[in-house]
Each structure stands twice: as structure tokens, then as C-alpha cells.
Design brief:
With 119 residues, the protein is mostly beta strands. Helix content is 0%, strand content 57%. A hairpin with a 6-residue loop joins strand 4 and strand 5.
Length: 119
């Protein structure tokens, strides 16, 4: 089983930027898609972005298009989420997730990293 560890969260003012990182370790050979999700207080966890481990096929939740960019670094077994023009409504715990070939679902999750955007 692979493990995921996020980093890079923090407190930023509206309009600012943050870059989240997610490092994968362990048995990563079965992973074919990496994604970012977020959960705001009192809300359901929602999809933010995903990309194949080949770095292709990036998809985004509508509200982050043009502001967030997901990218892969296979040499480091890492996925990143560059976030610009942050808004208070982006405040949430952000989770890295991996989907495996064997289950075709997001079945590996990181512990989450807090992103807080002040107005």
C-alpha cells in the first residue's frame, strides 16, 4: 500500500498564492491518477483537481479553473497544486488522494493540510 503526505498549507490573504505538495511513498506502482480534494467546515468533501501519473488529462472543479494548476513530478513521486488568486471560500482542509488500477477508485488518502484564506 502506498502512503501520501501533504505539505504546504497555511494562512494567506485573499488574492495570495500557495503551493501544496503531496509525496507518495511505498507501493506506488498501481497508482494511475492523483487528485486533490478539499473539505470546508460543515461541508462535504469535494473534488478539486486530478491528473494522470503521466501528467496528462488534468481536470478541475469549475470554481478553481484558471486559478489552480495540478502537476506531477514522477522523478519525485509527487503531485502539486499551485493555487493563485485565492479566495476566502477556498478555505478548507486539502487532501491528496490516489486512485489505483486495481480498484479504479480513490482509495489512498493523505492526512490533509489546512488552507486558510483571510479576507
Amino acid at each position: 500500500q502506498a502512503q501520501l503526505a501533504e505539505s504546504g498549507g497555511g494562512l494567506v490573504q485573499a488574492g495570495g498564492s500557495l503551493r501544496l505538495s503531496c509525496a507518495a511513498s511505498g507501493r506506488t506502482g498501481d497508482i494511475y491518477v492523483m487528485g486533490w480534494f478539499r473539505q470546508a467546515p460543515g461541508k462535504e468533501r469535494e473534488f478539486v483537481a486530478s491528473v494522470s501519473v503521466k501528467g496528462t488529462g488534468a481536470t478541475y472543479e469549475e470554481s478553481v479553473k484558471g486559478r489552480f494548476t495540478i502537476s506531477m513530478d514522477n522523478a519525485r513521486n509527487a503531485v502539486y497544486l499551485q493555487m493563485i488568486r485565492l479566495k476566502p471560500e477556498d478555505t478548507a482542509v486539502y487532501y491528496c488522494a490516489a486512485a489505483t488500477e486495481s480498484t479504479r477508485t480513490y482509495d489512498i488518502w493523505g492526512q490533509g493540510t489546512q488552507v486558510t484564506v483571510s479576507s
